[in-house]
Specification:
Elements (H helix, E strand, L loop, with lengths): L17 H9 L4 E6 L20 H11 L3 E4 H20 L9 E2 L4 H10 L13 H17 L6 E7 L4 H4 L23 E4 H10 L21 H4 L6 H15 L5 H4 L10 E8 L3 E9 L1 H12 L7 E5 L20 H17 L9 H11 L5 H7 L7 H10 L2
Parallel strand pairs: 1-2, 1-4, 3-8, 4-5, 7-8
Antiparallel strand pairs: 6-7
Helix pairs in contact: 3-5, 3-9
The protein binds iron/sulfur cluster (SF4).
């Protein structure tokens, strides 16, 4: 994440956890399941001398296979699932069915969530209760996948490849073992056991002596290995908003959205604060905003507190430009600049534009997980497994400040 003196993610230095993963891979009794975040596939190639933004999705999968991961899933799948849950929550808030305040704030960026817990605890009810895509995937690995494939969840070691250092904190939140409530008395493990950054994965690939550039493309495993274009653009600022707009339209009208909603250009680009108006028959005009960088978030949160923010839904990412240039992404070959961020973003938009399916609810594996396991968005089971709670950390911050004096 965006690390300043008071780094909200506690991620000022990156902890190298590759050894833990090598150990799990070497243990024949353990099923090692991995997921890859949207932005990792457009960053990893740069560690192997490829041009900025090269999409190496297939090579990344192939490299994970060669390293010995047993099952390879895609976080793009749970990005779609997040949209189903968070989009449903938004529609319920807007229609007054859910007694929670507007604007709804996104909750998939742990740096941002912790920032709210520290500095704006009074806005915690505005945060979507939906877990991040990473945590949803981890939860489902140890429940849905375990049940379908008859694997003991205690023998699953769940790894997440992320563009982000703050995700290392997120997976250790005590709320993130909810998947295994029924195993409470046993030694439960977190839903995501280890988060590796894109750079750490590059290190593993190099240590294993894999010739990355010449790998033939690999394929994700099924069940949770397919994402739509909407899931892919989660990796750049504005992507969650575009994905949510497409789905919200569908959830309210039952129809595919009009062309302007497929490419919601006002929320694209590297500006710190962007906004747009979305018209959805049955709801009317919905005002949305997209923020990247925590300094920009502060200004908007103060506006909400003062009661003069016009928006219904706001996406916030701690890193300027979003996850494509998160704290765990390659940087040596491409120091941070808007040009580099735009090139990485362009690669994600290309994945979306080329995708056969561009709407989260059209994802066949999303239909399957609801039909076979979760019932419906925000069902009792979905609430239990895919939603979470937040805590005020205002006093923690005050305590830390006085310690430092
Ligand atoms: Fe992590 Fe993305 Fe948030 Fe940055 S914007 S802290 S990479 S989740």
């Amino acid at each position: 994440g965006q690390c300043t003196q008071w780094c909200p993610s506690g991620a000022i230095t990156e902890r190298d956890e590759t050894d833990k993963v090598f150990k799990a891979l070497a243990d024949p009794k353990v099923t090692v399941v991995v997921q890859t975040a949207p932005a990792t596939r457009i960053g990893l190639g740069e560690e192997f001398g490829m041009p900025v933004g090269t999409n190496v999705q297939g090579k990344q999968v192939a490299a994970l296979r060669k390293l010995g991961f047993d099952v390879i899933f895609d976080t793009n799948f749970t990005a779609d699932l997040t949209i189903m849950e968070e989009g449903t929550e938004l529609v319920k808030r807007v229609q007054g069915e859910l007694k929670k305040p507007l604007p709804q704030l996104t909750s998939c960026c742990p740096g941002w969530v912790k920032f709210v817990e520290y500095f704006y605890p009074e806005l915690i009810p505005n945060l979507s209760s939906a877990k991040s895509p990473m945590q949803m995937e981890g939860t489902l690995m140890k429940t849905y996948y375990a049940e379908m494939k008859k694997v003991d969840p205690q023998k699953i070691f769940s790894v997440a490849i992320m563009p982000c250092t703050a995700k290392k904190f997120e997976c250790q939140r005590p709320e993130m073992v909810s998947a295994q409530k029924e195993l409470k008395d046993k030694n439960v493990t977190p839903d995501v056991d280890v988060v590796l950054t894109t750079r750490e994965l590059a290190r593993m690939i190099k240590r294993a002596g894999i010739d990355f550039a010449n790998l033939p493309d690999g394929q994700y495993d099924q069940l949770m290995g397919t994402g739509t274009g909407a899931g892919a653009i989660f990796g750049t600022t504005g992507g969650v908003m575009e994905a949510a707009a497409r789905s919200a339209y569908y959830l309210v009208t039952g129809q595919q959205p009009p062309s302007a909603l497929w490419d919601l250009t006002p929320v694209r680009g590297m500006q710190g604060v962007k906004d747009a108006t979305i018209n959805i028959p049955g709801i009317g005009n919905m005002k949305v905003a997209v923020i990247s960088g925590l300094a920009n978030a502060r200004t908007v949160m103060d506006q909400i507190k003062a009661g003069n923010a016009p928006w219904d839904f706001i996406e916030v990412m701690a890193c300027p430009g979003g996850c494509e240039y998160g704290g765990g992404q390659p940087r040596a070959s491409a120091p941070p600049s808007d040009d580099v961020r735009n090139r990485r973003a362009a690669s994600l938009y290309q994945i979306d534009a080329n995708a056969k399916l561009r709407n989260s609810y059209d994802n066949p594996q999303i239909k399957e997980v609801y039909a076979d396991f979760l019932t419906a968005p925000m069902s009792e089971k979905a609430e239990e497994l895919l939603h979470t709670t937040y805590i005020s950390r205002a006093s923690e911050f005050t305590a830390k400040k006085s310690e430092n004096m």
